[in-house]
């Protein structure tokens, strides 16, 4: 595991180095200063790391992999800059959100610029650029669909667990699916292999998001780099909230409807734990991580060791 941790650290360092080396102009300052600021955030870089690990499993060209890795990290940051506006989140990656440091108009434009840079990177790939751009843009559209559903679901007390899972497959799973399958597309793998990588990434992404919902309640805000409880405060229908509402409607309603908001997060944590909702949610996340492992098993001649280690890393993360 120590060797794997060293590999992850090395990839993250290389990604951060190449993000800093992106040829971002100085002017207009209104556009490029917020872009540089957003990319300086201390992100986990899980998505570009997954690109590199999937690429290593497919013996893909490292230079092309880095371009794909940077593109998906840029896409991820583009969505976060815009999501933070929509979700009223003021912290991101251990620093102020772009809209909070500047304003909404600046953040919208910065997000657009980040996405354009990602497209330029991908279009410059020497091999299969069209197919890779198609996968990238399909994932982007699904992420947007997922965010749209997330906004539609806010304060909607009829949302089911199945609807929620479909939403997070689009919002989170689709991009991790792309991270896993684009390296296979890069090397010209057949459709069945590409689809298996996509299924692996999607299952990993759903497990990732469910685990993230748990960290939103039980994590350390200093480690997470964001304020906790913002999803519930905004009326978002997380898996824990849906379970609480469906199984303990009156008691849950009393907690969130109480005008006394002091120690609200502590009350919510205690409720989820005492009612078994925390454990149920953990079990569901684990089922998707198991599904991700099974998808890897369906791929023939493949060294799965690093990808399985990555699943373990995501499953046990505390940030």
Quick overview:
75% of the residues lie in helices and 1% in strands. The chain is mainly alpha-helical and 319 residues long.
Protein architecture, described:
The structure is a single chain. With 319 residues, the chain is mainly α. It has one domain (2-315): Farnesyl Diphosphate Synthase, CATH 1.10.600.10. 75% of the residues lie in helices and 1% in strands. A two-stranded antiparallel sheet has the order 1-2. α8 (161-186) packs across α9 (191-218). The longest helix is centred in the middle third of the chain and has 28 residues, at 191-218. The two termini are 19 Å apart. The mean pLDDT is 92.
Could you outline the blueprint of secondary structure elements for this entry?
Layout (H helix, E strand, L loop, with lengths): L1 H19 L8 H11 L6 H12 L4 H26 L3 E2 L2 E2 L1 H4 L2 H20 L5 H25 L7 H26 L4 H28 L2 H4 L5 H4 L5 H9 L1 H9 L6 H11 L2 H21 L7 H11 L4
Antiparallel strand pairs: 1-2
Helix pairs in contact: 1-3, 2-6, 3-4, 3-8, 3-16, 4-6, 4-7, 4-8, 7-8, 8-9, 9-15, 12-13, 15-16
